[in-house]
What we know:
With 365 residues, this protein is an alpha/beta fold.
Amino acid sequence: MPSVPLSIVVPCYNEEGCLAELHRRLSAAAQGVVGDAYEIVLINDGSKDRTWPIMQELAEADPHLVAINLSRNHGHQLALTAGLDLCAGERILIIDADLQDPPELLAEMLKTMDEQSADVVYAVRRARAGETAFKRGTAKAFYRILFKLSEIEIPLDTGDFRLMSRRALDALLALPEQARFIRGMVAWVGFKQVPILYDRAERHAGETNYPLRKMLRLAVDAITGFSTAPLRFASHVGLWLVAASILLIGYIAIGFFTGSAIQGWTSLMLVVVILGAVQMFVLGMIGEYLGRVYVEAKKRPLYIVAEIAGHAGSRPQLGHVADHAPVRMPALPEPTRSPPAKRRASSAAGRSRAAPARKSSRTEN
């Protein structure tokens, strides 16, 4: 498999306003550290704007650029997985297309990797410009809750912006699960990983493509993928409810034998509602884990590539790449038909030729 010293992998969704500046800054940063020995891998994750046509134009003009068009919107983590699966670099930079993470940090990350003999250099957000207080607060809370619940040490305030060695990437690609939380999976594979601090900028253009719904889905994937604490919580709640039930049965028994009336329908209904809510919550957590088992059991490819512009230097391990672009069948020519008057004349001539033949056959008989 042909390789290059550096691959830069960028998942994109509705990023038409960022692509030109992104390409310029990524190219300058790569050329500054490895010369012409690099590739930029852009993945179009089912964008609804002109992201894919712009990618095709960039790929035609720049031989270093590989544009990958997924068959539909697979989601950020699976689009990133597709790029990592198809890139050919010995070192791989992961970065988002919105330019909130500065490509110019590449030189410092490479230097840190060489000086500390690290396999992963991950960027820790020191400041987050252009984000609301709600998003900053929820992100901070999420990383700390995940840190407490996770069975491995996942760095705080860290996104997917990082530089990886080829052996670290190969280890990551050996993990085939569908519900992917890449920053947690990179932490799970181990090797020497070192942080680097940076200030996150505002988005270059457009609007965020990660609304609250997607953030909550990512949070659930992260917690259920790297922690069994919710299941243990369900067990602990069940034990406490059993103990409370035993006490309640004792209280009812004492009231029955002493002849005192047990009053309080309101409190009784409150207990019933609380127990019902806890039971539904526990069932929901069990269902979440069971759903993950169901999805993994189907063993579907993680992504499907419809088209590639440029040369992808690697064969897919986790997905499927369509062999051919869709072919349009040529339209069949319509059958020629004679005008109605001509058809009538032709049929009359045919009848007149057939009449003598029938007459001669009667004469011979």
